[in-house]
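Researcher: Here's the sequence for the chain we discussed earlier.
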Amino acid sequence: MSGNESGAVVVTGASTGIGRATALLLDGKGYTVFAGVRKEADEESLRQAGSARLTPLMIDVAKHDTIDAARKQVEEALDGQGLVGLVNNAGIGHGGPIEFTSVDDFREVLEVNVIGQVAVTQAFLSRIRMAKGTVVFVASIGGRIASPFLSAYSVSKFGVEALGESLRREVSPWGIDVTVIEPGSIATEIWRKADDLVSEQLDGMPQEGQRLYRPQLESWAKAFIEGGKKTGIPPEKVAEVIHQAIRSDRPKARYLVGMDAKMGAKLNAALPRRTFDRMVRMQYKQPKEPPAGAA
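Model: Thanks. This is the structure I predict for it:
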């Protein structure tokens, strides 16, 4: 239906990782790019890295006033033209056992990763309709396979999958395409900082939480970090798939990106639930029974 080799695109979460790689790739391909950031330093960094076609937008997807201001800025710049792409990429994550994850932390993840995507899509969808553009949601293989100790993140990404499905079926009469990108591990700076982040998470748990979960969480974190370092692909690989979806006249409903994502999805679909659960426990070196002293 859609499919655009050029035109204007909005990308959220463009400060680092997939968002930044996507903004710069699309800029290099000749698109007019509006790249969402939250800090002035990131705004300046993008200006220096991109061409005159790239315009940073100060936008926090959890704050409606910034979304509204960004919408007005884009509409003024477009001067009556539409958007050929909207890349909903901004997202955050919190880790820890569900039993000891604060409701506020859980709510924050959903506010940014799901409600924020809804709010941004509502703000720009009329411009997408004008150009018969493509809406892209960056989810994760975590939107198909829920990891232990990443419940809030996984719940949000499952939600993004549903959001993409519903929107695609609602807006297809206008020639609008909607696609969901499902990356596996991404090679970013987060893996270098992961050990410190996990230590902070553990130290911040109450004594009862540490007694019950510390051994499992430490084993999970070690396996998760090592796996991410080994299998992580450059964010530019995901950016290339996003570009493919925007320029295609028949983009896929979902794109799995990365060997770990593709293999995980196949096994998840093929194996019985309990068999797959055992495989996940083995992958993250999780005990079958409560650790000693944590009964």
